[in-house]
Amino acid sequence: MTLIELTVAIALIMLIIAITVIGSKAWKRGSDRATCVLNLRSVQVAARSYQNLYGYNYGGRPYADGGTQDIAQHLLDKGYIEKRLFDQIKGQSTCPGGGTYTCLVPDVFPPQGELYIKCSLSESGEHQPEPGSYTDW
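Above: the chain's sequence. Below: its structure in token form.
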């Protein structure tokens, strides 16, 4: 092999590696976003199920079951969500992309069309469900 052939072969290998790295990063970001949106959906569906089962209105507060009106605590105690989701709601663990979940009013059921929790990365539009797609959650 001549030096030119060797240089071309190395350049092609480096190009393939660069494309692979860029593609894997994009795949990871998409995967993190999808997992975060699924977490938002799981919590929202659990809160709405609890609200409907016990007859609470939008904007209402649950009874102080177990000494607390915190909806997330009720969802955990009654088995609607796992401990992992509870920790994320409380900000004790992060979403897959490194953002944090916040619940502005933990003891009030959100109005229809609003989410119970939000991800801090939703500000940039990354970890946010499509507008209007979560009204039936």
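The chain has a mean pLDDT of 88.
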